C-alpha cells in the first residue's frame, strides 16, 4: 500500500500492483509446494502441539484441584488445632484440679500430724507444716467452702503456736540450764559422801558448762563478721526427727527461735523475754537457794551420822 501510494501516476500503480500480485501468487505456490513436501512433519508437529496443549490444560486442572485440596486440609488442620488446644487446656485444668485435691487431702491430715509433732516436741517441722497449710488455705484454697472450719482451726493454732514455743524457750533458758548445774552439784555431793572425808565439798566449776551465753560468745560474736555468721548459724539449724529434740539444749533453742521467725513472732518473743526476765531470775535464785539448803542439810545429816557410833 505504501508503494502504490507513492507512485507517480496510475500506470505506475498498475504496474506495481501487477508485480505485487505476481509475487504473492509465487509465494503462495511456494508455500503449497513446501506444505506438500513437509506434510508429514507438519502433521506430526501439529499433533505434538495439540498433545502438549492438552497436557498443560490437564496439569492446570490438577494444580487447581491440589490447591482446593490444600485449602480444605488447611481448614481441617485449623479445626484440629483448635480441638487439640482445647484438649490441652482441659488436660492442664484437670492436672491442676488433681494437685488441688492432693493438697486438700494433705491439709486435712495436718491437724493429726501437727498433734504428733507437738507431742514429740519437733517444733520446727510442726511450724513449717502449719505455716504452709495456712498459706495454702488462705491462698489457692481460699474459695473452697468445705475447708472453712479447718481454716479457722489452723489459723487459731498458728496464732497460739508462738506461746508454746516461748514457754519452751523460757524452760530451756532458765530451768533446763540451771537443772544441769544442780545435777552436777548433786553428783559431786554424792561422790563426797561416798568418800569419808570431813573436808568441805569443793566449789563447783561452772566455767565449762555449755550455757547459751557462752554459745553465743564463742560461735557468733568472736569474729568481725558476726551478722553473717549469726544468719548462717540460724539457717543451718535443722531438726532431726529420729533423735530426742531436747538432747542438745542449745540446738533446741535455735530450733525454737527459727520456728518463731517463721511465725514472724520475734518481736513478741523479745517482749515476753524482757517481761519475764526478772521473774525468771528470781525463780532461779529461789530454786538455787532451795537446792543449796537441801544439799547443806543432807551433808550435815551425813556428817552427824558418820560421827555417831552404831
Automatic annotation (TrEMBL):
According to its UniProt entry, one GO biological process term is:
vesicle tethering involved in exocytosis
Instruction: Write out the coiled-coil annotation as residue ranges.
Output: 17-69
Per UniProt, the keywords (alphabetical) are:
Coiled coil, Exocytosis, Protein transport, Transport
Q: Where is this region: Disordered?
A: 287-310
Q: Has the keyword Coiled coil been applied to this entry?
A: yes
Instruction: List where Polar residues composition bias occurs.
Output: 301-310
Which positions fall inside the Exocyst complex component Sec8 middle helical bundle domain? 245-295
Q: Name one GO cellular component term.
A: exocyst
Q: Describe the location of the Exocyst complex component Sec8 N-terminal domain by residue ranges.
A: 19-116
From what superkingdom does this record's organism come? Eukaryota
Q: Briefly, what is this protein's role?
A: Component of the exocyst complex involved in the docking of exocytic vesicles with fusion sites on the plasma membrane.
Q: Which family does it belong to?
A: Belongs to the SEC8 family.
| Record's protein name | Exocyst complex component Sec8
Amino acid at each position: 500500500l505504501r508503494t502504490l501510494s507513492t507512485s507517480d501516476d496510475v500506470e505506475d500503480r498498475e504496474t506495481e500492483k501487477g508485480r505485487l500480485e505476481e509475487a504473492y501468487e509465487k509465494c503462495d505456490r511456494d508455500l503449497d509446494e513446501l506444505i506438500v513436501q513437509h506434510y508429514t512433519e507438519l502433521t506430526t508437529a501439529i499433533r505434538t502441539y495439540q498433545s502438549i496443549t492438552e497436557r498443560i490444560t490437564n496439569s492446570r486442572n490438577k494444580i487447581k484441584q491440589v490447591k482446593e485440596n490444600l485449602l480444605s486440609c488447611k481448614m481441617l488442620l485449623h479445626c484440629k488445632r483448635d480441638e487439640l488446644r482445647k484438649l490441652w487446656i482441659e488436660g492442664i485444668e484437670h492436672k491442676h484440679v488433681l494437685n488441688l485435691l492432693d493438697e486438700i487431702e494433705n491439709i486435712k491430715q495436718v491437724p493429726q500430724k501437727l498433734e504428733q509433732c507437738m507431742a514429740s516436741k519437733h517444733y520446727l517441722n510442726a511450724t513449717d507444716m502449719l505455716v504452709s497449710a495456712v498459706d495454702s488455705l488462705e491462698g489457692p484454697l481460699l474459695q473452697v467452702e468445705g475447708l472453712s472450719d479447718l481454716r479457722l482451726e489452723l489459723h487459731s493454732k498458728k496464732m497460739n503456736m508462738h506461746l508454746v514455743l516461748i514457754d519452751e524457750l523460757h524452760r530451756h533458758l532458765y530451768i533446763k540450764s540451771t537443772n544441769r548445774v544442780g545435777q552436777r552439784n548433786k553428783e559431786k555431793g554424792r561422790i563426797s559422801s561416798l568418800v569419808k572425808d570431813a573436808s568441805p565439798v569443793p566449789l563447783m566449776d561452772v566455767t565449762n558448762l555449755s550455757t547459751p551465753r557462752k554459745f553465743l560468745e564463742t560461735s557468733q560474736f568472736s569474729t568481725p563478721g558476726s551478722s553473717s555468721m549469726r544468719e548462717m548459724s540460724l539457717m543451718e539449724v535443722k531438726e532431726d526427727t529420729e533423735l530426742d529434740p531436747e538432747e542438745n539444749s542449745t540446738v533446741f533453742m535455735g530450733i525454737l527461735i527459727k520456728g518463731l521467725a517463721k511465725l514472724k513472732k520475734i518481736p513478741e518473743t523479745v517482749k515476753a523475754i524482757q517481761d519475764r526476765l526478772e521473774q525468771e531470775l528470781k525463780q532461779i535464785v529461789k530454786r538455787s537457794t532451795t537446792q543449796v539448803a537441801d544439799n547443806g542439810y543432807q551433808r550435815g545429816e551425813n556428817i552427824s551420822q558418820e560421827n555417831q557410833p552404831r
